[in-house]
Amino acid sequence: MNEHSNHSNIDSVYNKESMRRRLERFSRFNISGLCPTLKDTQPHFFESFNESHFALMFEFDQTIKSVRTQPFSISYTDDKKKRLYTPDFSLTYCNKSICVVEVKHSKAIDEKTKRTHFLIEKALAKLGFKFSVLTEEDLPSRRALSNMKMILRNALSMKVVNDEHVNTLLDVLPSELTLQKAHAICDALNLNRNLICHFILKDYVKIGFSRDICSESILINNFMVMCDGRFN
User: Fewest CB atoms within 10 Å of the CB: 68, 105, 177, 229?
Assistant: First the structure.
């Protein structure tokens, strides 16, 4: 992808036709940016660190098929007044259910906010959508988030994942092994070591995120058929 295409892709995130407002660009006065994703055709836009952390978590949840940031605006009624609401995320699950997510800091949720969320939930229910409010209390530890970010970065660095290589590695992985042993197997088969990160991202194997990841970290073979019965 050339430089012009990269800029066009970023511009399309900041200027969504379905949005009722123009998204703010990066600046030192607001916390905003873009997160890489495999669950949308465009990067995820975030306006807080918590939003970026949840976007990262959604990448590792294999029950979620697709994720969109600030996907639409809906109207709801409050004291006979029409108001507009734009959610932070919409999650489409493998069972085709849709959950709309609002990210808030726990200290920002007072009785007025709870009432607003109740009205939004009622409006979304009419559309068949679930509604969830997530706060920093729903996030894992900083160490876990750091590990997840590293795994995602390494997995995405592969660009294209060869299904034949995936099947080859799945055939030889034992039920439990260290990360060092997994890398040794990749080296012996002349496979990219980052394929292990792809496996962790896709939940083919599990690793503990709450501790520092090192050569002695244990991997558990957790391969299962994905929701559509194919690798994705």
Answer: 229
